[in-house]
Amino acid sequence: MDIFKVLSRGIKAQPKKNQPGAPQLLPSAGAKVNPQFFHDNVGGSTSKRSRKRKRKGAQANNTTESGDDDSDASDVDYFAPKPTPEELAAKKDAELKADEPKKQKPKLMEEDECRQLLKSHRLKFTVLAGRVQQAEEATEKPSKKKQKKNKKEPGEKDKKKKKKDEDKKQIYPQPLNSFGELKYTYGVHPTLADNITRQGFRVPTEVQMGSLPLQLRPEMALEKAPGVEDVKTERGIDFLGVAPTGSGKTISFLIPAIDAIIKRRAEDYAPEADEHVLQAIVVAPTRELASQIVNEGRKLAIGTGVRVVLMKRTLRLVAEENKQEETEQEGKEADKDSDHDSEAESEPEEVVGSDEEEEEEDSDAEKNEENKAEGDKKSKKERPITRVDILVTTPKILLNFLCGGEKEKGKPRIVKKTLPTVQSLILDEADVLLDPIFRKQTMGIWRACTHPNLGMTCWSATMASNIEALLTKHIEKRAKRTPEQTPKPLIRLVVGLKDTAVPNITHKLIYCATEPGKLLALRQLLHPVSSADSGPPLRPPFLVFTQTIDRAQALHDELKYDIPLEAGGSARVAVLHSSLSDSVRSKIMARFRSGEVWVLITTDVLARGVDFAGVNGVVNYDVPVSAAAYVHRAGRTGRAGREGGVAVTFYTKDDIPFVKSVANVIAMSEKQAGKDIDEKDTVKAAQGSVQKWLLDALPKVAKEDKRKLKVRGVESRRTGGKATITTKSSWERRRENNRREAIEASKRRKREAQKAEKEGGAAPVEKDQEWTGLD
Ligand SMILES: Nc1ncnc2c1ncn2[C@@H]1O[C@H](COP(=O)(O)OP(=O)(O)OP(=O)(O)O)[C@@H](O)[C@H]1O
């Protein structure tokens, strides 16, 4: 080793912050983050506990900024003896133990303190359904005349009333102050609790603070809350969690699911019984997200004996035959009562959604696997049943199992099997799972879970009110068919403002006059000429979203040689979409996670749920088709409270109908982050990105058009034409077309000549088919 080099490292002056060469605050820069989003000072003073937490957080931030954190000392002192890995592990364990509160009788917070802490973290709980009073009122149905009259009431009045009612329903349950409380206050199994701390999670995020006590021990969480006399929790609760992207919703549903299984197993222990009984199903819209959930679940379940498995086509589960008549009847009832969304229930047995629009298309690899399996019926019969406690699945693949095969064109599907042992159904990204794209499939799975005490939890960063209403109505209806006839309380937690924000990242809207202009702008981001041109710093790795698979592919073809060979070349740019096979998709994911791929071009298949801790930025090459789509795409950066993420959105004049809603999300995000304080004029916050005068001048888009845009996107980008991604001039494209046509014509002539020769005749003479040369 060069000793001079080592010595010089110790004396080399570190560049100061904000100077060239100084380390930048980037999401991938490290793990020193505070995963909590909000710390408001409520009413001028915060509670003792929250003050304590805030000081802790502030300290962590200060030490990070000043750079004099203890843990960094050994990095600076190059001659200090380095601890062995065993010593480091022992030190970490000791630190974790010191963080835990001593075993003591659970101490609950007083009402006021609780209320202030919840407010300071912007946690808002509402009982959406299942209050005993409500259930009684619901039985006294208003007459049809009265209903009509109510509908005619002026909208403003209705809105005010609705808001008042919602405020009334708000409740203040106990929050989780530290992960240590899980074990000692909420009775979580010690192995599971240890697995949580071992993953390095120190401070619960807001959604974890709010949701874990209620899911684990609802009666205790509501013990000191006022106004909950009519919220009966003996049979558990149903839960709806709406929290920002990257806020830790995954472990919020996995912890209670795993813990419930451990407890049930301990209660119903029978030496001869099968240890693994399917008790929980997690449904996610894409395969990438489903396998990510499996990984998270397995880490949490280490040493607990709980098996978390990813659903596959070839997997066999323990299921019962469905009593078909009963299901039909159920479907008809649901259909009769449906008044706000006919699509949801119009064909109760036809449970599969539109194959065309689905993100989850069958991959070749899976089809081959299936064909092979079908070809050998004998081996299929012999295939053993998979022992599983928690099943993670995409909707279609589980429904195919329940219906006994794939959908035949034009035929309605019947759910032939039920899953009576499932006691917990979890919908991750619930708004998309209950959207028309997946709704019939999700409903089919829900109906197949026939346990009378089935618990339902739904999660997303965005939740439209019609989806929420649909969910509430179905929970209530289902409850009427149970022996108790009353629904469990459905409690909704909203973290921050509902639906609208990605608060901890920088947003940027860039106008490009033409489609090729977008390509130039993207290249400008990749290779900025000067820092002034480059806008916000966008460093690899980053994700680029396009509207369609074809566009993703075309953009990849354009960009793959943009990284110099010396820096990795075309291996640094990759494309991932749903028409690639499963194995290719997972290989690309692994390469992106490991840092080998710097620019990953993709479609909305990666927009939801997928967690890449190191992603520094997101580029919306094509504008997202709705505010929710923007939230999810932009939320792939700045995960777990990491700051420094950037979301850049290009728009052309074709995108005008979408820009307003995107700008509003940006404004809300900045407002939530405290960057803009203008209460009334939300769009003002986005002035840095898009001009307010321009936004004001934009036409309002009709609801129906908005719906069409959401499903189809910008039409010209689907069909190609003007919106084709290419940097070639029209002259070059024409020349290429001519050349291609000439080659094809020549091949055709050759084929025909050969054919004629074989048949013994003369070669055909082509009329008017001369090559006209290059244009
Ligand atoms: N308490 C915590 N402290 C630190 N990091 C956490 C904590 N809880 C979760 N994380 C990490 O935060 C990241 C994001 O979590 P997760 O994927 O669950 O977010 P999410 O809310 O489901 O996001 P999305 O809405 O995009 O699906 C993960 O890498 C996870 O390990």
Structure explained in plain terms:
By secondary structure, the protein is of the alpha/beta class. The protein is built from 32 helices and 17 strands. 44% of the residues lie in helices and 10% in strands. The strands form three sheets. The protein has a nine-stranded mixed beta sheet. The chain has a six-stranded parallel beta sheet with strand order 12-17-16-13-15-14, with helices on both faces. A two-stranded antiparallel ribbon has the order 6-8. Helix 26 links the parallel strand 14 and strand 15. Helix 11 runs parallel beside helix 13 and helix 19 packs across helix 21. Bound molecules: adenosine-5'-triphosphate (ATP).
Number of helices: 32
Low-confidence stretches: 1-25, 44-79, 325-373, 677-687, 766-775
Distance between the termini: 64 Å
Instruction: Assign a percent range to the helix content.
Output: 40-55%
| 3D shape | globular
Compute the number of strand runs: 17
What would you call the structural class?
alpha/beta
**Spatial strand order of the main sheet:** 2-1-11-3-10-9-4-7-5
Q: How confident is the prediction overall: mean pLDDT?
A: 75
Rounded to the nearest angstrom, the radius of gyration is 29 Å
Strand content: 5-15%
Sheet with most strands: 9 strands, mixed
Could you say which small molecules are bound to this protein? Answer: adenosine-5'-triphosphate
Keywords: ATP-binding, Helicase, Hydrolase, Nucleotide-binding, RNA-binding
Subunit structure: Interacts with the U3 snoRNA and is associated with the 90S and 40S pre-ribosomes.
Family: Belongs to the DEAD box helicase family. DDX52/ROK1 subfamily.
Organism: Pseudoneurospora amorphoporcata
